């Protein structure tokens, strides 16, 4: 793939991320937190464009999360933005940047390798399954690492916001991963599979990504 084509495709995926991020489509308010589908173009971009460009898309994803949680905060926005005060304090924490960017960076890198692993496992006989599993894994990376960061770095503040005892935070985190994260991952896997099947079955798209 030529350098100019790479730059063009990277710009297209970046545009999709920005469109989702700054319209009601990308972040879905759930009261205490914002669910998102922005990780899906990051996952697809990682598989199609490779881990380096996927990493760039992941950073863009993280930046949109930072901006969204800063200018339109939800109850848990302090875990994504150091500009939002932690409950009970007058300031935020720089650890929010770690939660905001590290999981999203890995979402841009690891799906490429997950896809290659599953493709080798199935010896490329079931590309649809490989796309599906890579999409699911990429989505779970985001959910699990974000929620783990909340638990380890902001457990006390999370308990205060949720109005639960600190000993119940672990169970609450696991519940969110199971109730929200797993269905979100399945949706991400299905969309990833459909989009990449279309790319593979279209000569025009195949030429675009060569």
UniProtKB/TrEMBL annotation:
The chain crosses the membrane at residues 7-25, 31-49, 56-80, 92-118, 130-154, 169-196. GO terms for molecular function: transmembrane transporter activity. The keyword Transmembrane applies. Coiled coil: none annotated. InterPro entries: ECF_trnsprt_substrate-spec. It comes from the Bacteria. Keywords: Membrane, Transmembrane, Transmembrane helix. This is Thiamine transporter protein (Thia_YuaJ). The lineage of its organism: Bacteria, Bacillati, Bacillota, Bacilli, Bacillales.
């Amino acid at each position: 793939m030529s350098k100019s084509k790479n730059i063009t495709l990277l710009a297209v995926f970046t545009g999709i991320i920005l469109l989702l991020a700054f319209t009601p489509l990308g972040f879905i308010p759930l009261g205490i937190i914002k669910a998102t589908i922005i990780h899906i173009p990051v996952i697809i971009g990682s598989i199609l464009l490779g881990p380096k460009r996927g990493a760039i898309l992941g950073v863009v994803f993280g930046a949109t999360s930072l901006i969204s949680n800063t200018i339109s905060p939800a109850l848990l926005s302090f875990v994504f933005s150091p500009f939002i005060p932690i409950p009970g304090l007058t300031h935020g924490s720089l650890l929010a940047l770690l939660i905001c960017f590290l999981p999203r960076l890995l979402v841009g890198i690891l799906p490429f390798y997950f896809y290659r692993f599953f493709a080798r496992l199935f010896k490329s006989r079931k590309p649809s399954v490989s796309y599906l599993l890579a999409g699911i894994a990429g989505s779970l990376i985001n959910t699990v690492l974000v929620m783990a960061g909340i638990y380890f770095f902001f457990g006390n503040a999370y308990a205060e916001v949720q109005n639960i005892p600190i000993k119940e935070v672990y169970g609450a985190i696991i519940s969110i991963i199971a109730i929200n994260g797993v269905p979100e991952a399945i949706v991400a896997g299905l969309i990833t599979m459909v989009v990449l099947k279309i790319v593979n079955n279209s000569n025009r798209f195949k030429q675009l990504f060569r």
